[in-house]
């Protein structure tokens, strides 16, 4: 698997787990690099879990990245799930109505089991 600067990527069975390296990785300063790294993980039929356990902040650019990632994963015939999203970040997803298109699970094992 490729080496990433902002992500830790691991395969558990047939599921790709993506964890963010630090809490501010979803800020505007990292948006372009983050987008590039996330898109590199996409393969045909990918089953991906984004683990947000270390993420404390989402910029508007990060929200845009999530939308675009969801679209690309779906167009590749894959499925994207989010896990370990904090209550404040869940609030952001609800305010922006992204909770209607992004599947959110309380834990990484719960997200993996949902495939």
What does this structure look like?
The model has no long low-confidence stretch (mean pLDDT 90). This protein has helices at 31-41, 60-75, 87-95, 108-113; strands at residues 7-12, 15-20, 47-51, 79-83, 103-105. With 115 residues, the protein is an alpha/beta fold. Helices cover 37% and strands 22% of the residues. The protein is globular, with a radius of gyration of 13 Å. The protein contains four helices and five strands, in the order ββαβαβαβα. The chain has a five-stranded mixed beta sheet.
**How many alpha or pi helices?**
4
Which spans of ≥5 residues are poorly predicted at pLDDT below 50?
Answer: none
Order of helices and strands: EEHEHEHEH
Q: Percentage of helical residues?
A: 25-40%
In total, the number of domains comes to: 1
CATH superfamily membership: STAS domain
């Amino acid at each position: 698997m490729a080496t990433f600067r902002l992500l830790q990527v691991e395969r558990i069975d047939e599921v790709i787990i993506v964890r963010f390296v630090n809490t501010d990785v979803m800020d505007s300063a990292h948006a372009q690099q983050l987008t590039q790294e996330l898109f590199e993980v996409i393969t045909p039929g990918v089953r991906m879990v984004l683990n947000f356990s270390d993420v404390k902040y989402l910029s508007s650019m990060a929200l845009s990245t999530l939308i675009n990632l969801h679209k690309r994963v779906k167009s590749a015939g894959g499925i994207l799930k989010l896990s370990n999203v904090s209550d404040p970040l869940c609030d952001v997803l609800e305010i922006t109505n992204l909770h209607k298109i992004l599947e959110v699970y309380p834990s990484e094992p719960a997200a993996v089991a949902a495939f």
